[in-house]
Amino acid sequence: MAASPTLDLALALIGRPSITPDDGGCQQLLSQRLAAHGFRIEWMNVAGVTNLWARYGDQAPLLCFAGHTDVVPPGKLTDWHSDPFSPEIRDGLLYGRGAADMKSSLAAMVVAAESFLAQHPKPAGSLAFLLTSDEEGAAINGTRWVMEQLNARGERIDYCVVGEPSSRERLGDQIKQGRRGSLNARLRVIGKQGHVAYPHLADNPIHRVAPTLARLCAEVWDQGSEAFPPTSLQISNLQAGVGAENVIPGELTAQFNLRFAPQDIERLKQRVQALFEQNGLEYQLEWTLSGEPFFTAEGALIAATREAIRTVVGYEPLLSTDGGTSDGRFIAPTGAEVIELGPLNATIHKVNEAVPVADLEPLTAIYAQILERILQP
Ligand SMILES: [Zn+2]
């Protein structure tokens, strides 16, 4: 029925329900396709997470297509106009959970690799796929784990294209060259509970910390750069009080998050801490780094990608670092040039997730063009 190999494969992937960390047999299907074209298949499954490392060739440079087969839950089924796991085409759009994030990119990458290798069975380097079923979840036993294994045995990725949906209004209009980091803080301010009529016998943690929170919100952390917006801090949770009108609370808890460009993270923490040190607060601060930042400067991969996009769709992509975190953060620290390039992101994680069918062939062609520019013998 479908006239395009990428559409065929995307349909097969979307039809396999794979809510994190379940892979639903997606990687099995992809590994069969890759093995048939000469890729060495290596499973790196751990703790219920399915991970595939498939490599063609031994020479450097190594270009890796990376991505995830897991999807987020569909949400309210009655809000979907068709079954999220029975892909359907309506009015030129392919509907289904994972259509945009990111089963269409995986299909396009595999078809691009097949057609490239059919033309160049001896590429000038190697080609690999790094697939995981743990990207939308904890992301501990997925790409991070595979990268640890590869690093331990000295297998090095030079260029990596992550298939995250990066496009905004038109296919290929934006590529991500990095992501901001994400740092979470849990604050606890200790006071002394008491009666509101006897404040001298209590110590109100709300009053104590209010000026510091105001300073925290007003602080200018940096000016940003050409590639990154300024560091931002948002307080996301604030709790104190027992619900009664006449009780001064004994403690206050809060949570806040910083989004930041690559920098010395310890220094950033110290700057936050310094604000709390100022007025004799009794407090505890617990930090969790939920995402490392990364940045890929303009080099061979971005140049090849710009040309590929220009050749296929005829316009120039915008380079961006916005959005949440991605698995690129685990690949970039090894020195690889990492970008994210994929279909339109307007419907990701929403009900009725969809991707224009007409974008599947050009997306495949863009990936194939990147291979031509990096690995053509
Ligand atoms: Zn994704």
Short description:
By secondary structure, the protein is α+β, with helices and mostly antiparallel strands. It is built from nine helices and 19 strands.
Set out the fold topology.
Elements: H1 5-14, H2 26-36, E1 40-43, E2 51-56, E3 62-68, E4 88-90, E5 93-95, H3 99-119, E6 126-132, H4 143-152, E7 159-162, E8 174-176, E9 178-179, E10 181-190, E11 194-195, H5 205-218, E12 232-240, E13 247-248, E14 251-260, H6 265-276, E15 283-291, E16 294-295, H7 300-313, E17 318-320, H8 328-331, E18 337-340, E19 354-356, H9 360-375
Helix pairs in contact: 1-3, 3-9, 7-9
Bound molecules: zinc ion.
Describe the structure.
With 377 residues, the chain is of the alpha+beta class. The protein has 2 domains: 5-179 and 293-375, Aminopeptidase (3-Layer(aba) Sandwich); 181-291, 2-Layer Sandwich (Alpha-Beta Plaits). It contains 9 helices and 19 strands. It has a 6-stranded mixed beta sheet, covered by helices on one side. α1 (5-14) crosses α3, α3 (99-119) packs across α9 (360-375) and α7 crosses α9 (360-375). The model has no long low-confidence stretch (mean pLDDT 96). It binds zinc ion. Zinc ion binds at residues 68, 101-102, 135, 164.
The small-molecule ligands in this entry are: zinc ion
Work out the strand percent: 15-25%
Count of alpha/pi helices: 9
Order of helices and strands: HHEEEEEHEHEEEEEHEEEHEEHEHEEH
- Please identify which CATH superfamily of the largest domain we are dealing with: Zn peptidases
Q: In the CATH hierarchy, what is the architecture of the largest domain at level 2?
A: 3-Layer(aba) Sandwich
How much helix, percentage-wise, in residues? 25-40%
CATH fold call of the largest domain: Aminopeptidase
Structural class of the helix and strand makeup? alpha+beta
Query: Radius of gyration in whole Å, from Cα?
Result: 24 Å
Q: Tell me about the biggest sheet?
A: 6 strands, mixed
CATH class designation of the largest domain: Alpha Beta
Low-pLDDT parts are: none
* Major β-sheet strand ordering: 1-2-6-3-7-18
Q: Provide the residue-averaged pLDDT.
A: 96
Shape by Cα distribution: elongated
Quantity of strands, as a count = 19
Overall domain count: 2
Distance from N terminus to C terminus (CA atoms, Å) equals 36 Å
